[in-house]
C-alpha cells in the first residue's frame, strides 16, 4: 500500500468520524419520526444532497474562519426551519431551538477554552 493511499484512507476515516454528530442524529430522528419516512433512506439521500453544502461550509471556514462557518450553519438551520415550517410549525420551532443551543454551546465552549488556554 502506498503512503499516499494510506494517508488518504486515514484522512477519510477521520472525516467520517467527525461528521457523526448527535445534533444531526437528533434532528434526523425528529423529522423522520414526524413525517413518517425511513430514517435510513433520509440519512443516505440527505447525505448525498448535503455534500455540496459541506463543501461550501469548508470553503467558508477556510476563508473567514469559524465565525463565518457558524454564520453559514445558522443560515442553513434557519432555511431548514422555513422548509419544515411550511409543513409543520412544531417541528420547525424545535429545529430553531436546537440551532440556538448550538450557537450558545459554541460561545460557551470558546469562552471556557479561552479561560484555560
Structure, described:
This protein starts with a helix and ends with a helix. It has helices at 3-18, 22-35, 39-85, 89-116. With 117 residues, the protein is an all-alpha fold. 90% of the residues lie in helices and 0% in strands. The chain contains 4 helices and no strands. It is globular. Helix 2 (22-35) packs antiparallel against helix 4 (89-116) and helix 3 packs across helix 4. The mean pLDDT is 85.
Structural class: mainly alpha
Largest sheet: none
SSE arrangement, N to C: HHHH
Contiguous low-pLDDT stretches (5 residues minimum) are none
* Average pLDDT for all residues: 85
Query: How many β-strand stretches?
Result: 0
Strand content: under 5%
Number of helices: 4
Q: Helicity level, as a percent range? A: over 70%
**Integer-rounded radius of gyration:** 17 Å
Please tell me what the overall shape is. Answer: globular
Distance between the termini: 40 Å
Features of the shown structure:
117 residues; 90% helix; 0% strand
In short:
This protein is an all-alpha fold and 117 residues long.
Topology diagram in text:
Elements (H helix, E strand, L loop, with lengths): L2 H16 L3 H14 L3 H47 L3 H28 L1
Amino acid at each position: 500500500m502506498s503512503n499516499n493511499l494510506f494517508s488518504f484512507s486515514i484522512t477519510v476515516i477521520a472525516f467520517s468520524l467527525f461528521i457523526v454528530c448527535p445534533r444531526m442524529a437528533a434532528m434526523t430522528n425528529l423529522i423522520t419520526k414526524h413525517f413518517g419516512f425511513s430514517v435510513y433512506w433520509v440519512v443516505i439521500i440527505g447525505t448525498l444532497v448535503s455534500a455540496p453544502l459541506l463543501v461550501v461550509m469548508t470553503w467558508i471556514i477556510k476563508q473567514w474562519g469559524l465565525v463565518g462557518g457558524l454564520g453559514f450553519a445558522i443560515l442553513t438551520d434557519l432555511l431548514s426551519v422555513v422548509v419544515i415550517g411550511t409543513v409543520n410549525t412544531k417541528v420547525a420551532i424545535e429545529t430553531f431551538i436546537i440551532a440556538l443551543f448550538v450557537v450558545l454551546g459554541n460561545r460557551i465552549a470558546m469562552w471556557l477554552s479561552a479561560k484555560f488556554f
